[in-house]
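Discussion board: Methods & Data

I've been asked by a reviewer to show the raw model output for two of the constructs in my manuscript, not just the figures. I'm not sure how much to include, so I'm pasting the format here to get opinions. Each protein appears as its amino acid sequence followed by a line of discrete structure tokens. Is this the kind of thing reviewers expect to see in a supplement, or should I convert it first? Here is construct A:
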Amino acid sequence: MHKFQMKNCICVCTLVECGTKLHKDHDEKKVDKTYFKKIVGSLMCLTTIRLDIMYYVSLINKYIKILLSLHLLTTRKILRYLQASLRREVKNII
């Protein structure tokens, strides 16, 4: 979370909102490929221990060549979900 400046992000309880459709629309704003690939790579490593995010990470990975702002928002939502689950785990330990 520190690596992507999302340590103090607003947490969410769901991975992706219902009805979210990822597409390859070329009219939308493009994002930085390096930043997006770093996030997706980190999430791919996490799928070995967090099976609940595997489907969504593989879905985002399909769009790695066409990086739109919608894809980045969806990826950041997965990070926010992970942050929320980490906070719940810490509360349960304490």
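Construct B, same format:
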Amino acid sequence: MINISAEKLEGKLSQYLDLVAYTDEIITASSENGNIVILSEQKYNNLMETLYLHFIPGMKERIIDGLNTRIEDCEESKE
């Protein structure tokens, strides 16, 4: 994660946006009015998907059960 001032970000905004797009780096910048976070669309979409799955009742437990299941104990999907 890169932490910079708003002034520094403003001076090189295009370069920092390219950095985020190409490397998936996260940038935090602070100004007099507060802090901001810049992240790639892919990272944002991953966060939104994680939040979505978190709020489906029982999904967290199903994911954990799946992670703890040995591959030998899995059955082939009928779909």
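Answer (T.O., handling editor elsewhere):
This is acceptable in a supplement if you add a one-line summary per construct. For B, something like: The domain at 2-40 is CATH 3.40.1620 (YefM-like fold).
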